[in-house]
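Predict structure. Chain length: 288.
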Amino acid sequence: MNQYTPPKVWTWNKENGGAFASINRPIAGPTHDKELPVGKHPLQLYSLATPNGVKVTIMLEELLALGHKSAEYDAWLIRINDGDQFGSGFVEVNPNSKIPALMDRSGPKPIRVFESGSILVHLAEKFGEFLPTEQPARAETLSWLFWQMGSAPYLGGGFGHFYAYAPEKIEYAIDRFAMETKRQMDVLDRRLAESEYLGGTDYTIADIAVWPWYGGLALGRMYNDAGEFLSVQDYRHVQRWANAIDARPAVQRGRMVNRAFGEPAMQLHERHDASDFDTNTQDKLAAE
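Prediction complete.
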């Protein structure tokens, strides 16, 4: 086993390897000038269909399904592997250079909203949906929302990185984060054994936030064969919940938006109108 002794002062090694070595850096700010496009709707989303991005597109599609016409939105693809998130326009919307980022132009002054949990709360309060107004349901919903924001880095940046993306397999790191991911799945399973949804009897932004990460894991869609490795079938209450949400039409549409990988029929790179699902997926564009 190679022994590593940290230096007294860390310095940036650009050749650190891994799937995201070309875009990782220890400084913030833009790397190039690039303005963001602006479409016809008040809500402008700049994103990619990672679990964090999918949260917001599911939320918007759920709002539209309820008849909120003012939730119509333009979704622009941000290719993070190409460094689009470091363009000057994107950094103006999100100084942290992470997707998703939202510009709400519905009022007299544009509002930027970044961090997926913040966007969900903004939209829930704006449209009066998926976030209870009465206690204790409101507190329960927000608690599970923030549970996801604090827990998912252990699943993604921890387990997912070392299991699927790191340049070498490190047993200690994989064991450490596999243990934590399974503990988190058990937390969810125990909650869902006593409650239909995370916040209670109603589907809320807590479910919309947690499902793309932990529902995706439960359904075997994360990190290659990670579902088998973590025995996700054992979490039967999570399985029930994950499959129920997966069957929602708005969720199925939300998964497609800003998706630039996987089956061409599931990829809708940009979304500007509901008809785009029928006409502009990659399989249909390739057939033209």
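Summary: The two ends are 55 Å apart (CA to CA).
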